[in-house]
Amino acid sequence: MPLYQSDWAKAPAHAHAYRARTTTANGHYHLIEGFSQPANGSNTDQHVHFYSGITSFDNGHYHRYYGITGPAIPRADGAHYHEIEGATYLAYSAAPPIRYGGVVYVSDGFKERHRHSYKGITREIVGNEPLGW
C-alpha cells in the first residue's frame, strides 16, 4: 500500500520540503532550503503552498525570498509535488559603510545591488497525519 491515499478523500493538511540553487550573479550563488506552509490538498486538486525564507550566507550577504508554489502535480505513487520559481530580493553587492551602527533601509543611489533567480521542485511531503488516524 502506498504511503499516501490515491484519492485523497480527506485532503489532509501537509507541507513540503524544498531545496534549490540560485543563478550566479556577481560571481556567486546561494542555496535556498526550507519547508512550505501547510495547506489542505490532494494530488489532483491544484492546491498551492506559500513559502518564504532567507538564502544561504555567501559572499558576505544573504537574500530574502517569498513565493507561492505552482499547483499540485501528481506522482505515479499517488503523492504529488510542486514547482517553485522566483527571484530573491535585492541585496548590496558590497556591505554599505555604516559609521555608527544601525541598519540601512534606503540605498544612497551609489551602492550596487543585485538579485538571483531560482527554479526547482518541492521534495517529500512532511507533517501530514498518518493514514487511518
TrEMBL record:
InterPro entries: YmaF
Name of the protein this chain belongs to: YmaF family protein
Organism listed in the record: Bacillus swezeyi
